């Protein structure tokens, strides 16, 4: 019996931002592309804060007007604090060091749906509720997939399947990073009527750090705020065992023990339960191989504290698409295209993974929170965290990052700036339990703030 395959030039597994951007770019170039998405959009997804480089990419794609029409909150920087909330540091994206001085926070359901619709408008064959069941063949020029709606043959596969890591699991290349502090669990939900900063600071994500993990607070539209807590899994298991708290109630447990977060929720309306997801950092190397390119979380997942995920995904989509178009045009060999793509992704990811590793060191947090330093070192660090790492970190940032890393190392032994007291959710100081009476949704913040621009 003869097997029948529906043919296209490129098959894309996954319809999130990375997959949608890749489909859009390929379709605009006249390539026959089929995008296979197992869910139906709009659908809920976490990860609502974007880096400045994301806005630049959307502008290059001509999608800024479509973005502006969606409910969103403009983002010009971020605010960070320790769990006691006694003081915080805010920073804005530095003009010379950042790809843009502005970006945005947005509900992922509406943003992802917009991108998928734009891919369809561009001519991509978008098929929702169509999951890839298995990979049958994976070679340059001949990729075969079994889907729930029939088999597909393509010349190349772009894996944008997210944490399902279609190719990584097929090839057995997915591996969690060895650093245990990057393997966590996240509890999150959408709240209403949460206290906000005013003016251009309204869109600042609020990152609160504790010994056991960290919290995020992200305003995503006029009413709602995304709030989450990231914990080491052994801490979560200990708390649940000793207190009997179920996983869908863990976020409230953390909020009640963290003054910095709790005081901003004095008048908030919480969800009935929190969501739960694994937050394990991993890689699926190599990021490109015979017949495939990996983009977004299908390639690697980094701890989301600095909101790098979608930026890496969209950059990967842009680069993988360009490499495939060069192959089709006969300008480059498949092997050379793979090397180009791997080099770009490895370069940026190496820097981001290093910063994520340091984030869990108290010395890093102290230096970072102080926000002051000579030679524009803080500005360079914030520039890197705004997405300025592709195709590689420029020299002006690299040597400043080197000095910053040296300062973090020295600070472990000799204080080179004001000390910030550690904060533990398991043993919160009793004197921080009281919520300041002046804090309300209409009040100004009582937190002492050091600004960095």
Topology:
Blueprint (H helix, E strand, L loop, with lengths): L5 E2 L2 E4 L3 H12 L4 E5 L14 H9 L3 H5 L3 E4 L1 E6 L4 E6 L10 E4 L1 H14 L3 E4 L3 E8 L2 E6 L2 E5 L1 E4 L6 H6 L2 E3 L6 E10 L13 E5 L2 E7 L4 E8 L1 H11 L6 H7 L2 H4 L12 E6 L1 E3 L3 E2 L2 E3 L5 E2 L7 H20 L5 H26 L2 H9 L6 H9 L9 H17 L36 E5 L1
Parallel strand pairs: 1-11, 2-3, 2-12, 3-8, 5-15, 6-23, 12-21
Antiparallel strand pairs: 4-7, 5-6, 9-10, 10-11, 13-19, 14-17, 14-18, 15-16, 16-17, 19-22, 20-21
Write up what this structure looks like:
- By secondary structure, the protein is of the alpha/beta class.
- The radius of gyration is 22 Å and the shape is globular.
- Helices cover 33% and strands 25% of the residues.
- The protein has helices at 17-28, 52-60, 64-68, 108-121, 166-171, 233-243, 250-256, 259-262, 309-328, 334-359, 362-370, 377-385, 395-411; strands spanning 6-7, 10-13, 33-37, 72-75, 77-82, 87-92, 103-106, 125-128, 132-139, 142-147, 150-154, 156-159, 174-176, 183-192, 206-210, 213-219, 224-231, 275-280, 282-284, 288-289, 292-294, 300-301, 448-452.
- Helix 9 (309-328) runs antiparallel to helix 10 (334-359).
- The protein folds into three domains: 6-71 and 107-177 and 281-349, FAD/NAD(P)-binding domain (3-Layer(bba) Sandwich), CATH 3.50.50.60; 180-280 and 422-452, 2-Layer Sandwich (D-Amino Acid Oxidase, Chain A, domain 2), CATH 3.30.9; 361-411, no CATH class.
- The N and C termini lie far apart (68 Å).
What tags apply to this protein structure?
single chain; 453 residues; alpha/beta; FAD/NAD(P)-binding domain; D-Amino Acid Oxidase, Chain A, domain 2; eight-stranded mixed β-sheet; six-stranded mixed β-sheet; 13 helices; 33% helix; 25% strand; globular
């Amino acid at each position: 019996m003869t097997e029948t395959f529906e043919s296209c030039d490129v098959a894309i597994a996954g319809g999130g931002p990375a997959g949608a951007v890749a489909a859009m770019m390929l379709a605009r170039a006249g390539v026959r592309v089929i995008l296979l998405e197992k869910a139906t959009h709009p659908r809920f997804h976490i990860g609502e804060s974007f880096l400045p480089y994301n806005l630049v990419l959307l502008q290059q794609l001509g999608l800024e007007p479509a973005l502006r029409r969606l409910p969103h909150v403009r983002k010009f920087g971020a605010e960070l604090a320790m769990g006691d909330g006694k003081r915080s540091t805010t920073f804005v994206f530095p003009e010379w060091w950042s790809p843009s001085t502005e970006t945005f926070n947005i509900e992922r359901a509406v943003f992802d749906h917009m991108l998928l619709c734009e891919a369809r408008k561009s001519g991509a064959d978008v098929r929702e509720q169509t999951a890839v069941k298995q990979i049958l063949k994976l070679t340059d020029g001949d990729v075969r997939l079994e889907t729930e709606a029939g088999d597909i043959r393509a010349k190349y596969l772009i894996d944008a399947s997210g944490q399902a890591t279609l190719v990584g699991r097929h090839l057995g290349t997915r591996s969690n990073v060895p650093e245990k502090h990057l393997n966590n669990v996240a509890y999150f939900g959408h709240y209403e009527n949460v206290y906000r900063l005013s003016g251009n600071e309204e869109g600042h994500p609020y990152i609160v750090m504790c010994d056991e993990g960290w919290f995020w607070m992200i305003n995503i539209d006029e009413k709602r705020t995304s709030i989450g807590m990231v914990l080491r899994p052994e801490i979560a298991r200990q708390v649940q065992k000793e207190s009997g708290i179920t996983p869908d109630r863990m976020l409230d447990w953390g909020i009640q023990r963290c003054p910095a977060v709790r005081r901003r929720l004095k008048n908030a309306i919480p969800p009935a339960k929190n969501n739960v997801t694994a937050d394990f950092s991993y890689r699926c190397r190599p990021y490109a191989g015979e017949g495939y390119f990996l983009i977004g979380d299908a390639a690697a997942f980094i701890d989301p504290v600095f909101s790098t995920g979608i930026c890496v995904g969209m950059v990967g989509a842009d680069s993988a698409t360009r490499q495939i178009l060069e192959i089709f045009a006969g300008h480059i060999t498949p092997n050379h295209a793979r090397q180009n793509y791997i080099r770009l992704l490895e370069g940026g990811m190496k820097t981001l993974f290093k910063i994520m590793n340091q984030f869990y060191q108290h010395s890093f947090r102290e230096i970072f929170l102080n926000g002051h330093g000579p030679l524009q070192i803080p500005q360079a660090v914030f520039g890197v965290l705004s997405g300025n790492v592709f195709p590689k970190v420029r020299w002006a940032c690299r040597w400043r990052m080197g000095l910053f890393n040296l300062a973090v190392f020295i600070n472990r032994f000799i204080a080179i700036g004001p000390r910030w007291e550690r904060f533990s959710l398991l043993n919160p100081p009793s004197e921080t339990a009281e919520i300041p009476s002046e804090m309300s949704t209409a009040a100004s913040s009582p937190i002492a703030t050091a600004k960095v621009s």
